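Hi, does anyone understand the following?
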Amino acid sequence: MQLPILPLAMLTLTAPMMAQNFDGLETTSACYMRVYDSEHLARNPKQTVTRFFVARRGAGNDFEELPIRVGYTLKGSRDYFQANGRCLRVDTGYSCWLEGDMGAFTMTRLEKNKMQASLIRMSIEGYYSFSAELTEDDNRVMHLYATGISQCGRPRRN
C-alpha cells in the first residue's frame, strides 16, 4: 500500500496545533482501550469485537509518525488479533494504518481521556487465523478510554 507523501510544511504546522488540543497518542505510554461487557453486546448483537485497544509503541520519527499497536478479541473466537502500525497527526486527530495492509482507521478526541476509533477497514492475523473484515459487522466506530499501558496487550485467559 502506498501512502501519500505530505509536504514537510504541512507536518510542521499540524504537529504544534495538535499538541495544543490534546495529548492523545503523544506520550509513549499512551493506551486507549475498551472491553465490551455482555450487556453492551446484547444491545448490539451485530458487534463482534469484545475488546479493542490502540497503544503507542516507542518514539516517533522525523515525519511525526507515531508507532502504534492495535489488538482485539472477537465473540466466539479464542484467537487474539494484533498488528503494528503508524499514526500521522491530522487536524481532527490521527490518521492510522496497519503494517501489511491489515487496516486503516482514524482516531478523534471526544473528551479528556476518551477517543473514537473509526475503522475504514481492518482484518488482522491472529495466532490461529485471520479475523473477518471488522467493518462488515457493527464494529465501525468504537469509543476507547485512556488506560495504563500494562492493560493493553494480549488478554489473560483463566
Observations:
- Confidence is low (pLDDT under 50) at residues 1-22.
- Helices lie at 8-21, 38-43.
- DSSP finds two helices and eight strands in the chain.
